[in-house]
Design goal:
Helix 1 crosses helix 2 (45-63) and helix 1 (15-38) packs across helix 3. The longest helix is centred in the first third of the chain and has 24 residues, at 15-38. This protein has 110 residues and is mainly alpha-helical. It has helices at residues 15-38, 45-63, 72-91.
């Protein structure tokens, strides 16, 4: 069996094309996660920003330099973010901000 070399890697995209693609990916990630943020499933704005950056970086790594934005790209990003966020919710369930407040119903009148 003859040795076959691995296929060549795609030519690196121009910095401008890569930057534009990353911005589009970031916008799609923010749009997908914002509904969870507004439903209080993400604890804070800082955590929201952290997740957006994290998922954007992961998508960029998965694309291996591919900067072509097709009709399927936003669908793939949404599917990835929703699946990743579902795993995140299992590990970090949302906390009820009212859970730590005392029970005011059982306070005797003054």
């Amino acid at each position: 069996i003859p040795f076959l070399p691995p296929p060549p890697l795609p030519a690196p995209a121009s910095p401008q094309a890569s930057r534009t693609f990353r911005e589009q990916v970031g916008q799609e990630v923010v749009q997908t996660l914002s509904k969870h943020y507004h439903q209080n499933r993400i604890a804070s704005k800082d955590e929201f920003k952290h997740l957006c950056r994290k998922y954007t970086h992961i998508v960029m790594e998965k694309e291996h330099g591919n900067t072509a934005w097709t009709e399927e790209t936003p669908i793939k990003i949404k599917k990835f973010v929703e699946a990743s966020f579902a795993k995140y919710l299992k590990a970090h369930p949302p906390q009820n901000p009212l859970a730590d407040l005392p029970d005011f119903d059982n306070i005797p009148p003054i």
